[in-house]
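Thanks for the sequence, V.! I ran 3-oxo-5-alpha-steroid 4-dehydrogenase-domain-containing protein right away. Repeating your input here for the record:
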Amino acid sequence: MAGGLSLKVTNRVPKKPIKKLPSSIDIAGDATVDDVKISVAKAAGISDHNRLGIYDPATKKTLKDRKARIADQEGISKHGEILVKDMGPQVSWRTVFVIEYLGPLLFHPPVLALRNYIYPPLYSLFKGHIPASPVTEELSLAQKAGFAMIMLHFLKREYETVFVHKFSASTMPVANIFWNSLFYWAAAGALGAFEVYAPFSPAANATEPLTTYLGITLFLFGQIGNFRIHKYLSGLRKPGETERKLPQGFTFQLVTCPNYMFEVIAWAGIIVTTRSPSLIFFISIGMYYMWTWGWGKEKAYRKQFGDKYKKKRSVMLPGLL
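Predicted structure:
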């Protein structure tokens, strides 16, 4: 094909082959990963090209940037081959995140509204294990502030998902919705709500208003910083672009992912306010994942930008993580 490429097409998983997969395809010299997916899907009779994963034949790694030029992929150019895998039914990343963050927003208001009916039966059921303090309609300052902060945090997440974030990958397998959402719905949603608004919770018995105000201050500082970073990162890519750009400036000289740093600060504020063991568990697990994602980005920056990038020892908390 003049000015183009002819590529051999091979099943990534021979035990689960794609029926009607073409043995080869001809593509333009400037064809992208997305173009190849569309071409293979059309030849194989697959209606949604997003189901297909394109892999480098040398590294066996998937090509995540759907706008990357195939001709620029060293392994593919060298071997003249691509590996293809059917990833199954897909759903957009944006949809998955919207569903994830919806959990806490759905759990906290009804638990708070029905607390006078939820907790009284527990006293007789767990007699001797929880303090028999009466349920009243009045919430403590820490509980009120905790509710406001949790709702604001996840409403902000939803807003950013719909209007701010840009995703380098367009879809993920539908099955991921369950596993991705379970953590938010169970830990930050059901467990967090049930514990924070209980009349015997640490938040209910918090008597130091200065500690609560400190928590609110940390929360606001973290949320503003996190939102500012997300807006900046979103602006690095022009509409339609998926290529990774090198972020600079505001706190990026401290850590690889300052958005994670501010996320932790915001959650530290929520925890200082609510004194909640459930939410400590939630953000502890979340910090582990943010740390692993952060190191992934650090390695990617080092590989892609070389000497132009100043290596970081910490990816999310200066001098710690």
